[in-house]
Amino acid sequence: MKLKLDLHVHTNVSGDSLIRLDEALVEARVKGLNGLALTEHEKPSKVKGLINNILVIPGLETQTSIGHVLVLGLDQWRLKPGLKPICVVLEEAKRFEAVAVLAHPFPRTLIPSLILKARRLGLDAIEVLNSGTIFYPLSSRVNMKISLKFNIPMTAGSDSHILRTIGYAYTIVETPSTCIEDILESIRRGLTEVYGKPSGLKAKLEKRFLGKIFR
Length: 215
Description:
Strand content: 25-35%
CATH architecture: Alpha-Beta Barrel
Largest sheet: 10 strands, mixed
Oligomer: single chain
C-alpha cells in the first residue's frame, strides 16, 4: 500500500506553533493525507497510532552540529535541548530504532562531504522538500541532487507551524501495513516519493513571527 504522509508538523507542544492536535487531524483529512509525523522541538510527541483515521507518527526535531534532525518513531528521548554532536543524536535515534532525517538541509547539501559523513554515522534520510524553506526551488533541486547522487532516501514535509500549510509537502511511502515500524523501515529502504510546494511569503512571515514571540 501507499500512504500519503506529511513527515514534519509542529503542534502547540513545540511552543512556537499555534496548531492544536485536533485541528491538525482535521486538516490532514481535508488535505487527503493518511498521516502526520509530529516533530515537536526537542521533546517527543506522546501521541501515536491511528486517531480519527489519521495515522500519527511520534517524533521530535532536535539541534545538531550539522543542523536540525527529525527523529521519527519514538516517544521518549534522553538528550537535553540544545546543540549536540550529530554522532550523539544518531546514536540515540538508533537506540530507539527510530529514523533520523536531516531537516531542511540546504545549504549544507552544498557540502557533500558533510552529508556523507552523517550518512556513515547512521543518518537514514534527507528531507529534500520542506515547504517552509526560503529558497524553495533552489534548495529542493540541490537536496534532490545530493540524495540521488549518494543514494540517500528522501522525505518531504511541510514544517507546519500554522494550520493551513499542513500537507503542502508530503511523502508517499510504500509500506506493507500502517504499522509505524513498517513505515520507518520503508523510509530506510528508500521506498518513498516526494511532492510539495512552497508555503508562500505570508506563511513564512507568520512562522518567523511566531518563532520570535515564543522564543
